[in-house]
User: What shape does this take?
Amino acid sequence: MILYRAALTVFRATVKGSLAAGTPSTYGFATTHGREGAMTAWAERTTMIRPARPADLVVRCGITDTMLAGVPVGLAMFFRGTLDTGLLADGLAEALTHVPVFAGRMWRGGNGLLAIECGSGGVPLSVCDVDEPLGDAIGRVVIARSGYVAHVSEFEPLMRVKVSRLADGATVLGLSWHHAVGDMLSFVLLLRAWSAAVDGAPMPDARIVLDRDAYLDAVLPEQDCGRPGFRLPETDETEELNREVGNALAANRTVHVYFGAAEVARMRQKFVADAGRALSANDVLCAHFTTVIRQLDNDTEQRLLTVPVNLRRPLGLAAGAVGNLLGDVQVRCPGGGPPAALAAQIRESVSEFADQHLNLRTNRAFLAAIDPDRLPDCVPVGFDPKHRTMTVTDWTRFGGYDITFQGHRPALVTPVANPPLPWLGWFIEGFDGTGVLATVVLPAKIAARLRGAEGRAAVHRYAEPGDVRPALADTVRKLV
Assistant: This one.
């Protein structure tokens, strides 16, 4: 979550010169340079994919969608096999008919809120050949300008797809979409529809909500916790945050950490015993990972930890509803506290979310009192790099590894941050859906410590010599 105006500056610079700039049937030669080398792609071709049948729908976005307007979400899916790009293109056209909001055009209304004209745009799909094997590609995707994901920029298009055919016959499916269109569950719904169209399976249930705020009004309590999740920074802090965004590519690094299933089970058993209560795997991983990072940073201050929450379950919303149906809990972490106690705090906060942390009505009241022109200047409370506020998102159990194309399941699914803002992390299932892959963006010095011997020992203190890592993990450079 970032300052919208500052984000646009970075996004324009990042996509400048990209072959996937939105013109259909573009061919060319592209070399993507990173601090750790260059990846070369040949004969990149981009085609605009439109819904097979146009949808005459207009979605009125809500406050949450509007506040996420400048945020692109990136995802890379790695397949061991070769995917037929013709079948992918045809299947995507059918999927966009089923979930047309991702192929729409977005505009801002007079009240400052956004609207999406569904199915009136399209999704650029580019294809290129890359002289790298699968393991190298997975290791390179953490580099901010690896080139495996063509990130969206501004309001059109709302989604991009890049297919990279690797030297060993494997395939990378690079995906990017505007967060304002929908959250991760919304995007997985599109992926499920795409998979169904390619593999001849039934389409999933999808609900295109035409008025997102009204949809929530029907289930929200009249009173919530009363604490807004957004703030309007003063001018000096805004300038500081803009610098943070502008310097992100040079100042921060993305690190992948793989936790095996046995390692996670031992960690969970230990934390449950220490806390004296039931804890989820995500509670435990979040507490352990956050504690290790703070130790490597020699940080003993009290910090804030933000954990996003899917609203569909606590509010009884349709599982197939498309939008940003998100809230979050904010946990105060005392410096030097035991990780099991932090895990217990996270579990208690998530369990009490509806009563203690739900704040959508308060957010609306807070933002309604602001001049609409100032809405892009607001930031989530959880975006506070000066105070090292961590935000950790759990993408496990979202079904990314259930997606198939021509029968091929992903070998790995991972988020790809752009720009790489610090103190952001994600958990998702690891190689072939086993264990957990943690992805975290940190300042370069702390990232180096995490990758070093001290960091590896600390983060894997619950691993044992007999633990077996997936074969593919051993081919990935710089995997912790």
